[in-house]
Amino acid sequence: MAEHSESGGISAVMEKISEKIHAHDSSSSSDYDSDSEKPASVKAQIYRLFGREKPVHKVFGGGKPADVLLWRNKKISAGALGGATVIWVLFELVEYHLLTLVCHVLILALAILFLWSNAHTFINKTPPRIPEVHLLEEPFLQVASALRIEINQGFAVLRNIASGRDLKKFLIVIAGLCVLSIVGTWCNFLTLFYISFVLLHTLPVLYEKYEDKVDLFAEKAMIEIKKQYLVFDAKVLSKIPKGPLKGKLA
After folding, report:
1. Is 79 in contact with 234 (CB distance < 8 Å)?
2. Which residues, other chains included, contact 55 with Cβ-Cβ below 8 Å and sequence gap of 6+?
3. Reticulon domain spans which residues (predicted)?
4. Which letter does DSSP use for residue 93 in this model?
5. Which DSSP symbol is given to 133?
6. Rounded to an integer, what distance in angstroms lies between the CA atom of residue 199 and that of residue 69?
């Protein structure tokens, strides 16, 4: 009997020890899960510029245009930027006209090909193989369809702003148009297009390189802008009468 009670007591103690071990393992695993979930929650709270949720490469479409803008292929990106620079120099600094430039390029190309085709027997070289160029209809239709969709969306946004439903968006658009009109007085359309092209080929790649620093600065700037907007709303916008004034006039 004494041996039976002693063995029963030992088994009870062993069961308690095993229960404590299982409880400790479960608590440690739950702590590990909570710790592993913390980075995800922290990442979800990180501010991203313009509220984006995708990488910069995906924002630009993730294809060849994104590779060019983000300098994945440095030769193509440098060639595009260099070509745009040459065009800007020819039209803006040298003051070439578009029709004159096109005619001179065609004259030079046709003269070289004509002379090469007729002089190949004298210089013992094969004549140039001039490819047949046929423009496909599908790419033009795709571009026209995409352009139509963007124009319709622009008209819808302008209609929504003109309807007076969103005063904040109205003020932002008016301020943007004022800035654009001021910039238009400083330079012509070609220079403005070239500046936009250069910025499009430099700012995204710089942002991708210094993404965390830029997002942190943008978050602080956005907080300050929201504070100033709240002050402006309390002092100015809240005092503007809203709705029909028929009751007041009556």
Report:
1. no
2. none
3. 65-250
4. I
5. -
6. 10
The CA distance from 45 to 39, in Å, is 10
What contacts 24+ positions apart, CB below 8 Å, involve 126-130?
none
What pTM, to 2 d.p., does this model score? 0.57
In a structure prediction context, what are the per-residue pLDDT tens digits for the chain, which is 250 residues long? 444 444 444 555 455 545 544 544 444 444 444 444 444 444 445 667 666 777 777 777 777 888 888 888 889 999 999 999 999 998 888 888 889 888 999 999 999 888 888 877 677 777 778 778 888 888 889 889 988 998 999 898 888 888 877 787 888 888 888 988 888 888 888 888 899 999 999 988 888 888 888 888 888 888 888 888 888 878 777 777 665 544 444 4
